Predict the structure.
Amino acid sequence: MNSDFNPFRYSENSPDVGSEVVGLTVWRGRDRQPVHHLPKPVDMIIPRDKQRNTSSGVYKHTGWIKSWDDITVVPFRPQRARTALIIILNITSTSHPDLDMPHMQLVWQKASPPTADSFKAADWTTVLPVPQAQLYTLQLPHTYNNTNLTSHPYSWLLPSEALNVSKLDIQDNMTFYLGIRYAGEDTSTPVDTTFTVSILETACVYFGENSSHLWEGDGCKVGPLSNTTHLHCRCDHLTKFAGFVPPNPINFDVALSANITENQMGLIAVLSVFGLFLLGYLMARRADRIDLKKVGVSTPSGHKLSSNPDYHYIVTVYTGFRLDAGTTAQVSLSVFGLKNKSEPFTLRDDRRLLFGGGSVDSFLVSSEEPLGPLTHIHIWHDNTGPSPGWFLSKVVIQHIRSGRVDYFICNKWLALDEDDGRIDRMVFVASPEEMADRSNLISERATKDFHDGHLFYSLVGRPARSPFTRAQRLACCMSTVYSAMLANIMFFGQGDKFDPPEPIRIMGVEIEPPISLPEIIIAIKSAVIVFPINALIVLLYRNAAPKPSSKPARKLADTNDVQDTGKGRGCLPWWTATVAGLLAFAVSFVAAFFTVLYTLSFGRDKAEAWFTAFLASFVTDMILIQPVKVLVAAVVLGLLIRKPTKEDEPSPTEPTGDEEYLQIVAEQSWLRPACKTCPLILEQKDACWDGQMLFSGLE
């Protein structure tokens, strides 16, 4: 395996790895065979990272010698301990025609510059060029033309023990010196030689997959074939190999100087997302306005409330989330108790949009006589309109005085062309066992998660009662998409060249894991980039209190005795929604900016490959993976938490922004047990402001 990137960046010391990674593995059938303590080292030639090239990884110095006793001193400060040095001398010019390859003596010395005496008594010295017979040659008999690699004659390899660099030397910025002079004492011949010396600090390391998960150097040494473009490693075992070079900071010069007209993929990607956001925002605002006509509690048209509050009930009808689940027919309901039954209620309100797909519609009704404990309901429709078929999820009835809540679970069609073809149902009150039934709990939780919990799916199915609007959800979606684009492009291509994880044997059965540990770490890093900041934005939006209106709500009844406990309101100040919006746009801008920089540094071909891969993975995730995740979460939580899910029922609020409506504050008086006289405001047809009325949901 040869990888042009470091697939183990999750390792603590991976930032120091600056070469490609080579992996060698011996397999016997399906079993990996460990290889250690080879009598003859394995030679590996590893390309250095081109993007982290010579600016910091190679130290260069240009010098000249004009006489036989001249000494050129090159200072050098190593960046880390336990590394080797490759010193390459390049003769650029010489004045003597017989000295095309002049003999040069090199001395390596610590702390003090070398003198003439140092060249006679130095511990680490050499004379270049190396004789032809002594050059290191690596034969490659299996290549096309039997290539042989030969070391550079003016190359000097200083092993790590020669440097003797400690961590204290690194901390103290200890300076080492390289001395260069002519080898010999022919002072009669005038000379003038110019040269360039290159010093490469490097080491050969392997990755301890089964031990420390760090890059280690045991059993590996730098070879004499190392140069500015390749690293030569000689190791006595097989694993993942790479080379250390000094860390190189991110260089934006290439990206910022690139011609964006030649590589427009990143800009097209981020602008396309923003264009879709603008278009979606207009649609979301329109849908939010329509939702204002769906929420609240009202008395059915033509129904006269009893003056006795003991006979008052709130009936909440839940239409299911199915294709064409809503109905255009007229729905009616009768309630049965142990003592009496109610008259049929025609659930109609000309001021609201009722019984649409996934809608929750509440009505305030009353009976003429006490019903006692409720036993069952009879619900039906008249099969009128262009789409009369109706999927009823459940009906919840709350007795105002006692607060008792009864559930009537249906989950059936009332349609001539669905199920058994019936358009009326007799539904009995749900028992505790039926309420805790796993199938009901899982179904309710999955429905709520799809249409309220999931950001992208809830853009279509958002409950009208939820204070988290579609426009706010869309802003969160935009931030999430940009963050996902940045995380994806940061790790693009890193999971393509891993060795497959070793099979796991359990009781003789061999199981191949579908994902390796490095890939899991990459996924975790991506999640760390995407999840926390976007979760914070959603948290701020969901818990922000409504903004106070500059126009007070017009009251149609005396509300001196109305008590507003604030239940259901956001627990954070109203301005946190503004903070969330600003934060969403800030995250989107930063992620989009760096995504464009990445694509410019990638080049056109790689940028197009990234965008294709990202688009395919995103679509696959939305269509296949996310629904499975929601269903699995619903199943797990449904099995662990044996309680029905709760719907959002915000308390009455004042009009906000451009969502002005007539707030019927007097409705709250019906919910107060101390109420003795229930006003019949809802019977007044002229109680309408600008032809539109909105009723706030009641707890």
Q: What stands out?
A: The first strand starts at residue 2 and ends at 3. Residues 78 and 170 are 7 Å apart (CA to CA).
